[in-house]
Design brief:
The protein is α+β, with helices and mostly antiparallel strands and 862 residues long. The protein is built from 23 helices and 32 strands. It folds into six domains: 2-58 and 93-170, Rossmann fold, CATH 3.40.50.140; 179-235 and 499-524 and 538-610, Topoisomerase I, domain 2 (Orthogonal Bundle), CATH 1.10.460; 239-296 and 432-487, Topoisomerase I, domain 3, CATH 2.70.20; 303-421, Topoisomerase I, domain 4 (Orthogonal Bundle), CATH 1.10.290.10; 612-711; 721-818, no CATH class. It binds one DNA strand of 8 nucleotides through strand 5, helix 3, helix 5 and helix 15.
DNA sequence: GCAAGGTC
């Protein structure tokens, strides 16, 4: 029997589609990566009985990057990134092992049907899947077609079955347009980012951003925030005047009237209007009107609207809201949360989800009434053909979900119920008045039927007292006419919700990536989120945008994205050649880049005003090994040491704190050591600023501290303080933290493992002896006399932290102690490597180490 | 260390 491999874009879709096509008659198992499942069933395909295997990828299989050597910032001129630097496709998520997984499942299959999302990205993923799978599939017999594309616009039985009945071919042009986009984004983004970062971080010490990034989405996003800032700055308040009239409706009620001219900006003219009306005793009713009006129920919910409301009404940032929605989705409470669509398909079962809510303590009454009296058809929205609007799938309570997820779920559910509710109907009563020559009106709204506002009370029409009955020609006594002096006020900073709207309008980012871009400009310290989730640009953000305006405004205008996208669409439609468009666009941006580099002084002038040069920032901390003068420690991101005499900068670890380490020096370069420590885990190790940036030995890499240093005799090195292989990670070594006494600690030099040991020792040394059974270095411990855990008057003991019965009691391994070789039954290390002969080289797991932890445990329990 | 786009 032949086999048909079918691939969807995500595991959940593979399952839904397989369920529909197999009519629920399928068998499922997890794939080798533990994330994707394979659903199998038999059916007919091209007139024959076949076995179907439906599975999925997880988004893109591949990602684009430069060849390794072009990722060395100090060795490559960013200008080379526009053309010379070759790119390669790498697996997007190596942990998922997606290529291998696809090949295992695709091996021996005869046909492939691609069920990727029906957008350009999906089309591109089709070819990523084909690249992985075609080489292992059975070859086609005599011109037989083997590759098919299913096109569907919703995950409903009819759509999916129709797609299966009318299979087409993947669209190569659409896929190519995505390839072009990837390459453009990579080359342009990285070139500008590297140049800016190196240039400005090399000059200023207080930018407080780890990266001065540029991108065709993030930069215009920042641009919107700065544009609003500029409008606030340049705002000049204007004085205006409003005529306010009050009439007596009856004994104890007066009506406030709105002036038909609204306001005037000339004081004398305002005074003239006041003079013309203030002596009038009566207000004449000129007309009355009663209009029935409706407030429309909301459109079905899509992602950006959800994010807007989450930010503006729930105070949840887009990134956080998206993560929360995703959890609600994977737990089955809501439908897929990434969708542009605000329209339910005609055959969508609206009553099913609604029935789920019929017993909910908060809205059972509303839902039951809707079910009994009939629901209203949702308004016609936009159908992007991706996924149905966000819909609650299962009833839930706050206790079940927890406070934050509940608030989002509650909103989604109320919104859904509102979309099948009726519009809110209200009566708008207006009375038009004349006082002297001037006209005024008074308007009042009264609700006829609340409709959807019952379930979305924050949308209700506010309660107002109805107007007194009257008709044309009636008069009311004027209680007061006065002139109010007011001032126009500046706009406020952009709210996240407004920013999302702007991004959507200008096509910056997608529903899934909008939160990422907003998050980016926050993380880079270009904007900060203020109260009310308003985005206030920092000096850095402002200077960057003003700099782009000065040099090349196109770099920050929202059109930068849409202009490129226009070109890409030509590729997608087959109207332009991929190579030509790519080459041309790269050429344009290469020119822009060179012009930008040549004109960078213009932006620098702005930087100078806001930021301090490297030499003027930071506090003296440790001595330089070259000139022996103090170097300054710059704490602001990226934290580093700067020697102003040598004009050299040495980067430091980015998290945690840095202190001088007892004025001890590195034996290799005479630099004073500093001590890095992280608050959360209480981990610390010394490092040499020079070695950290210029690894002294071949087997070392950039960014290594003394706890990874292979110096054979230095007292701070891995060779001298290392104890044995880490209990959790593959390549790490547990190293004694010489500063941790009196609560001594041993920490892995690669992962987060920290072991506490010997609370009451005043001295701990790593001995040159090794343990006979596990080959770890022995520890030589001097305990406090009064608190010694040893028998009798003993205070000193030498032993293995893992195997010695005395020490074992005193050592507490933070993580999974049962994984240690000691508990796995027997020695886990090679014999015969003594100190000074590279006893503990990192990165070489022992030959005798059991393959997996379960078999090790099993061995132990036998 | 960089972009933006998928998705977990």
């Amino acid at each position: 029997m032949k086999t048909v491999l079918m691939v969807a874009e995500k595991p959940s879709l593979a399952q839904s589609i397989a369920k529909i096509l197999s009519r629920g008659n399928m068998s499922s198992h997890k794939g080798l990566n533990g994330t994707c499942s394979v659903h199998e069933y038999t059916g007919t395909f091209a007139g024959q009985q076949v076995r179907f295997k439906m599975t999925s990828v997880c988004g893109h299989v591949m990602t684009l990057d430069f060849l390794g050597k072009y990722n060395k910032w100090d060795k490559v001129d960013p200008a080379e990134l526009f053309s010379q630097a070759p790119t390669e496709k790498k697996e997007a998520n190596p942990k998922l092992n997606m290529v291998k997984f696809l090949q295992v499942e695709g091996k021996g299959c005869d046909y492939i049907v691609l069920w990727l999302d029906c957008d350009k990205e999906g089309e591109n993923i089709c070819f990523e899947v084909l690249d992985a799978v075609l080489p292992v599939m059975n070859p086609a017999h005599g011109g037989d077609k083997t590759v098919f594309r299913a096109r569907f616009s919703s995950i409903t039985d009819t759509d999916i079955c129709n797609a299966m009945a009318r299979l087409g071919e993947p669209d190569h042009n659409e896929a190519l347009s995505v390839d072009a986009r990837q390459e453009l984004d990579l080359r342009i983004g990285c070139a500008f980012t590297r140049f800016q970062t190196k240039y400005f971080q090399g000059k200023y010490g207080d930018l407080d951003s780890s990266l001065i990034s540029f991108g065709p989405c993030q930069t215009p996003t920042l641009g919107f925030c700065v544009e609003r800032h500029d409008r606030i700055q340049s705002f000049k308040p204007e004085t205006y005047w409003v005529l306010q009239a009050k009439v007596n409706a009856d004994k104890d009620r007066s009506l406030l009237l709105d002036w038909d001219r609204v306001r005037v900006f000339d004081r004398e003219i305002a005074q003239m209007f006041l003079n013309m009306t203030k002596l009038e005793k009566e207000a004449q009713v000129e007309a009355t009107s009663k209009k029935e009006k409706a407030k429309q129920r909301p459109l079905a919910l899509n992602t950006v609207e959800m994010l807007r409301v989450a930010s503006s009404s729930l105070g949840m940032g887009p990134q956080h809201a998206m993560q929360t929605a995703e959890r609600l989705y994977t737990q089955g409470y809501i439908s897929y949360p990434r969708t542009e669509t605000t329209h339910y398909p005609e055959n969508f079962d609206l009553k099913g989800p609604l029935r789920q809510q019929a017993n909910h303590p908060y809205w059972a009454d509303t839902v039951k009434r809707l079910l009994a009296e009939g629901i209203n058809r949702p308004r016609k929205g936009h159908d992007a053909g991706d996924h149905p609007p966000i819909t609650p799938m299962r009833s839930a309570t706050e206790a079940e979900l927890g406070s934050e997820p509940w608030r989002l779920y509650e909103y989604i559910t109320r919104h859904f119920i509102a979309t099948v509710s009726y519009d809110c109907k209200y009566l708008q009563n207006t009375i038009s008045f004349r006082i002297g020559p001037e006209h005024f009106t008074c308007t009042v709204k009264t609700v006829i039927s609340p409709g959807f506002t019952e379930i979305m009370p924050w949308q209700s029409v506010p309660l107002e007292e109805s107007l007194p009955p009257c008709q044309r020609g009636d008069t009311f006594p004027v209680a007061e006419v006065k002139l109010l002096e007011k001032q126009t006020s500046p706009p406020d900073y952009l709210t996240e919700a407004e920013l999302i709207t702007l991004m959507e309008k200008h096509g910056i980012g997608t529903d899934a990536s909008i939160p990422v871009h907003i998050n980016n400009i926050c993380q880079r310290n270009y904007v900060v989120v203020e109260s009310g989730r308003r985005l206030k640009p920092t000096n850095l953000g402002i200077v960057l945008v003003h700099g782009y305006y000065k040099i090349d405004a196109e770099l920050v205008l929202p059109t930068i994205r849409s202009a490129v996208e226009k070109q890409l669409n030509l590729i997608a439609q087959g109207k332009a050649d991929y190579r030509q468009v790519l080459g041309h666009t790269l050429d344009v941006f290469k020119r822009k880049f060179h012009y930008f580099v040549d004109s960078i002084a213009g932006m620098d002038e702005l930087m100078e005003v806001s930021f301090s040069p490297l030499a003027a920032t930071g506090k003296p901390l440790s001595r330089c090994g070259k000139c022996h003068r103090f170097m300054k420690y710059i704490q602001a991101k990226p934290s580093r040491l700067h020697c102003s005499h040598c004009d050299e900068t040495y980067t430091l670890p980015q998290n945690g704190t840095i202190k001088l380490y007892k004025e001890l020096r590195c034996p290799l370069d005479d630099f004073e050591l500093v001590l890095w420590s992280s608050g959360s885990r209480g981990k610390s190790y010394p490092l040499c600023p020079y070695c950290y940036n210029h690894p002294p030995f071949r087997d070392m890499k950039k960014g290594m501290g003394c706890n990874e240093c292979t110096h054979p005799t230095c007292q701070h090195s891995l060779s001298m303080l290392g104890i044995g292989q880490c209990v959790e990670c593959e390549n790490g070594v547990l190293v004694l933290d010489p500063t941790s006494g009196p609560k001594w600690k041993v920490a892995c030099n690669k992962c987060n493992v920290v072991a506490h040991c010997f609370e009451n020792a005043h001295r701990v040394r790593v001995s040159s002896e090794t343990c006979g059974s596990c080959e770890a270095a022995l520890l030589d411990v001097d305990f406090n006399k009064a608190k010694s855990p040893l028998l009798g008057d003993e205070t000193q003991h030498v032993g293995c932290v893992f195997c010695d019965p005395v020490f074992q009691e005193l050592v507490e391994l933070r993580h999974a102690a049962s994984c240690h070789p000691m508990h796995r039954g027997g020695p886990g290390r090679r014999q015969g490597r003594g100190r000074g002969r590279g006893r503990r080289p990192a990165g070489k797991p022992s030959a005798r180490r059991p393959k997996d932890k379960m078999s090790a445990l099993a061995a132990y329990f036998v």
